[in-house]
Structures are given as structure tokens and as C-alpha cells.
Amino acid sequence: MFSKELGINLQEKSSDEIFKWFVASLLFGARISETIAKNTYREFEKDDLLSAEKILKRGWHGMVFTLDKGGYVRYDYKTADKFLEVMENLKKKYNGDLNILHEKSSDSQDLEQKLKNLGKGIGDVTVNIFLRELRGIWRKANPPLQDLTVNSAKNLGLIKKVDKKSNLQELLKIWEQKRLEGYNFSNFETALLRIGKNYCRKHKCEMCPAKNFCMQVHF
User: Fold this and answer.
1) Nearest one of 11, 5, 10, 19 to 95, comparing CA atoms
2) Radius of gyration of the CA atoms of the chain, in A
3) Which of 20, 78, 97, 186 has the least C-beta neighbours within 10 A?
4) What is the pTM assigned to this prediction?
5) What gap in Å lies between CA 82 and CA 77, rounded to an integer?
6) What pLDDT digit, counting tens, does each position of 153-205 carry?
7) How far is CA 109 from CA 30, 113, 116, 143, in A?
8) Domain 2-132 has CATH 1.20.1250.10
9) Domain boundaries, the chain
10) ∠154-157-160 over CA atoms, to 5°?
């Protein structure tokens, strides 16, 4: 999982760990490379910017400096604006605690809307990234499958028709039947996403670790 790769332990359900993943999701959600997003998150760690209060105290110029160090040069001004707006609303509405935001949400759709309402820069992609790895941890985290996930699942013969709502139920059923000890459904979903993103989309069939199981291999 992307959160685990960054050293974030969501299983603890702690507000601090969930906030770290929220910061990472805001970075991953931009139109920028995965590598730059990871590097920038590391800069947030180094500069101790892992709470709403600390980000707000850092201010706009400080945020631009941190973003530039991570490689966000083309998007630094816009992203600094986004972070400060989001953190201001998170602090004002939920005391800077995303667990409070979750508890105040009536259902999964309301949860997604409350996250989007934190700032203009939070859209469907960012919300999906954030909630995908919280599925099974937050009761109301139930985002739709991403297109890349559906595509790889179809290529692997796990689903036949593309219907994201029923596809999710199909994959959940498969996971319950074939689950691996020490892993959860989010691991399975993330694996499918990575295959779709890194191999299916780029037609890198020969390099795909799942090529022996694929129904659409093109060499």
C-alpha cells in the first residue's frame, strides 16, 4: 500500500497517522509524478509539517519552500494555497482532526462531500486516493473503484463486465474467499491499481508480474 510505503500505519486509526496519509493524498492527487509526490511528503516530514496547526504556522512562503524542495516547482504556489485553505477549514470545522470529520459524516457519500468541502483543491481523485486505503478502517470509507483497478481486474478475469458498483462487490467476494493472512482488501485493491497503472495502461505486458494470469496479454 502507498501509505505503508511511506511508513504510515493506518491500522492504528490514530488521528496523527490518518493526518499523515491525508497530507500524502493531497500530494498524490495533483497532476505530478508519484516520485515527486513521495519526495515532497518526505520534505513535509523533515520540516515537521504533519499537523494542521504546524502547516498553518509555516505560512505561504514556508509552504512554497517545502514544496519546491520536493520538486513541486510548477505547482508550488497553487498547492501552497490549497494546503493553507484546507488546513484552515479542517481546524475550524473539526479541530484539525480527520477522525472527527469521519464521525460527523452520516454515510460514505457525506464523508466524501465533507472532505471535498475542506477546499477547492480536493476533488474526486484525491478523495478516492485517501479513502481507498482507509476502507475497512473507517466504517464509512467506501469509495468507488478507480478505472485503473477495474481495467486490471477485467484483464485478469476477475470481473467480466464493467460496473463499478457491482465490480466492488465481486472483488470483495473474491477477497473473502481467497484472503491472505496479514493482508486486507485494501492491499488487494492497491495491488490491482498498481498493475493497472504501471502495466496495463502502458501496455507493458512482458514486464507485468501478473502476466501469466492475464486474459489480454500482448507480447
Assistant:
1) 19
2) 18
3) 78
4) 0.92
5) 9
6) 999 999 988 887 799 999 999 999 999 998 999 999 999 999 999 999 898 98
7) 22, 6, 11, 8
8) no
9) 2-132, 147-213
10) 60
